[in-house]
Amino acid sequence: MTDAISTIQDITISHDPFQRDAAHRHAREALGDMPEGTWLELLKWGMTFDCLGLAPGPKLVLPPVRHRLSLSSDIDLASHDAIALTPGPHLADASSSIPVVRALLDAAMALIEALGGVQAVYWGPSGSAMSRAVFTSLASSWMEGGAFPALGMVGHIVDGQGRLCTDGLRWFVGRELALSPELSLDRSAAMRIAIRLIHELVPLGRLDQETRFILDDGVELGLMPVDDALIEVRTM
């Protein structure tokens, strides 16, 4: 892992506990007793991220997958080795901010390229698993000035009322979106609306008051927070 990271131009290892305590490590190795787990702190754009699940430590247990994107259901992700990349403790209060998320995704793309053999990427807040190619395409497009990668970062479900709802947007803006049953009748059109709204809402952060939004075709939508968990979207 350290050899792979050394090939990445703008990521450095800012803390390696396994190497720092060299005397302790050599003593454990002499006894045939390897450390229980290892991790690395990586520095990217002045921010630190923890890389977890590295050998010789125990394998990470992948949380349940709620959404799959260009990833066959035949692929059993739990049977594969996994590593996690998470914002460091000093970023805890800003982990969902745009600068941190951009740095995280850019670091992930660099690691994927350096490591090779990566088959899938899992985004925790939405429980979304996607192919390596899809993740790289969505993330790189955003880095180059394109739309926020809503398809990969936010899942979508249809609730009992027939509303298309987001799954994972709460992590960015504090609430999920629920499109009215009328807007949700055409699933493809509803997905396009949801993706467009996500792109607009994520940079704004939490939405606590009614907001109006006009689509490219002139349709006016009302976004109304109805409780601490949901924003209803209706035509005006």
What is the number of helices? 9
Using only CA atoms, what is the Rg? 20 Å
Biggest pleated-sheet summary: 4 strands, antiparallel
Shape type: elongated
Helix content: 25-40%
Mean pLDDT: 88
Low-pLDDT residue intervals, each spanning 5 or more residues: 22-37
Structural category is alpha+beta
Please report the total strand number as a whole number: 13
Strand order, largest beta sheet: 1-2-3-5
Question: How many angstroms separate the termini?
Answer: 54 Å
Query: Would you list the SSEs in sequence order as H and E?
Result: HEHHEEEEHEEHHEEHEHHEEE
Range of strand content: 25-35%
What does this protein structure show overall?
The chain has 236 residues and is an alpha+beta fold. The protein has 9 helices and 13 strands. The strands form 4 sheets. The protein has a 4-stranded antiparallel beta sheet with strand order 1-2-3-5. A 4-stranded mixed beta sheet has the order 10-13-12-11. A 3-stranded mixed beta sheet has the order 4-7-6. Strand 11 and strand 12 form a beta hairpin. Helix 4 crosses helix 5. About 7% of the residues have low confidence.
Sequence-ordered SSE layout with sheet pairings:
Elements: H1 2-5, E1 11-15, H2 17-20, H3 22-30, E2 38-44, E3 47-54, E4 67-69, E5 84-87, H4 98-115, E6 120-123, E7 128-131, H5 132-143, H6 150-153, E8 155-158, E9 164-167, H7 170-173, E10 176-179, H8 181-184, H9 187-201, E11 211-214, E12 220-225, E13 230-235
